[in-house]
From TrEMBL:
NCBIfam families: endolytic transglycosylase MltG (TIGR00247). This is Endolytic murein transglycosylase. It comes from Clostridium oryzae. Keywords: Cell membrane, Cell wall biogenesis/degradation, Lyase, Membrane, Transmembrane, Transmembrane helix. Its EC number is 4.2.2.29. The lineage of its organism: Bacteria, Bacillati, Bacillota, Clostridia, Eubacteriales.
Length: 344
């Protein structure tokens, strides 16, 4: 009787061990290979407003998951959703993925746009004429129609009305990536870009602690556009900003080559002496103070630099021909730098 009881107990515990080991093996299998019914690499869509639970539930409903409960438990237990930033679009899945790789793929969605919507990127420092050319290139709107909209757009209160400027909106069409429908009106495109500009100004105010009032706006954006035209490296933007502000305080001309480029209406690798003498309110070699208005559409870092420059004693800088600049406090030091880096 006792032998039979011992035998029963042993069998019972063996069964428990088998179940435990089997369960552990199954758990590990789900964790390392959570997906099923996948042929090679497939694409799965994250819809607008989807949370991680929505995506997991959708995968499960499409019979692509081995065990939804275990997968959710593992993600929660290891706090794997903390770094997840889901965006609408399509991500790739395959049956070799573990849970970590699955989540990583979810973080790399590729946006799916309607056929009549185009994604375009406006680089920092682009001028309105260049923006118009990009819009025409992607068959969104003709350059002529966009420029017409630029000239007739009702300006927000923070943009200075100045008939001497080439375009009143120059400087305020924020460089970024946009999804724009083919055939969109110039007015709707301008409104979209100004909306992003206003968002960025609020962000810059929080970052710098500087309140950019409507009264200050024009000078800051104009200065930012000059910085954008001169700076090649991000780390130098605030230093370049300080140079220009220091020169203004001393009633020195800014003497920015970028303003000459705008004044002559085209980019030149090498400016001629006659270019520096061109009569234009944008030419800071000829006229003191800021140029008549912004000379391009500056990015966020240049606007930050214009709003909150570094504190330096520099009055000059010259290109080192490698993207960097050499900064000088005195004219004699500047001349030595010019001879070193430019007179070759």
């Amino acid at each position: 009787m006792i032998k039979k009881l011992i035998k029963t107990v042993i069998i019972f515990w063996l069964l428990i061990m088998i179940l435990v080991l089997g369960g552990m093996k199954y758990y590990k299998g789900v964790v390392t290979h959570p997906l099923k019914n996948i042929k090679g690499t497939e694409k799965f869509e994250i819809k607008q407003g989807y949370t991680l639970n929505n995506v997991l539930n959708s995968l499960s409903q499409n019979k692509k998951m081995k065990n939804l409960f275990i997968i959710k438990y593992y993600i929660s237990k290891n706090n794997l959703s903390a770094q997840l930033k889901l965006k609408p679009g399509v991500f790739k899945i395959n049956d070799d993925m573990d849970i970590e790789k699955l989540l990583a793929s979810m973080n790399k969605t590729k946006e799916v746009l309607p056929k009549d919507v185009v994604k375009i990127t406006i680089p920092e420092g682009f001028k309105i004429d260049q923006i118009a050319a990009v819009l025409e290139k992607y068959e969104i709107i003709s350059k002529t129609s966009f420029i017409k909209s630029i000239k007739h757009y009702k300006l927000p209160s923070y943009i200075k009305k100045d008939t001497k400027r080439k375009y009143a909106l120059e400087g305020y069409l924020f460089p970024s990536t946009y999804n724009i429908k083919k055939g969109a009106s110039g007015e709707s495109i301008i409104k979209m870009m100004l909306s992003i500009f206003e968002e960025k100004i609020r962000s810059i105010e929080e970052t710098t602690g500087v309140v950019i009032t409507s009264k200050k706006m024009d000078n800051i954006i104009t200065m930012a556009s000059v910085i954008e035209g001169e700076a090649k490296e991000e780390k130098e933007r605030k230093i370049i900003s300080s140079v220009f502000y220091n020169r203004l305080k001393r009633n020195m001309k800014l003497e920015s080559c970028a303003t000459v480029q705008y004044a002559i209406g085209k980019h030149k690798a090498d400016l001629k002496p006659s270019d520096y003498r061109v009569k234009s309110a944008y030419n800071t070699y000829l006229y003191a103070g800021l140029p008549e208005g912004p000379i391009c559409n500056p990015g966020e870092k240049s606007i930050e630099a214009a709003a909150a420059p570094d504190k330096t004693n520099y009055l000059y800088f010259v290109s080192e021909n490698n993207g960097s600049h050499y900064f000088s406090r005195t004219y004699s030091e500047h001349l030595r730098a010019v001879r070193k880096y430019q007179d070759k």
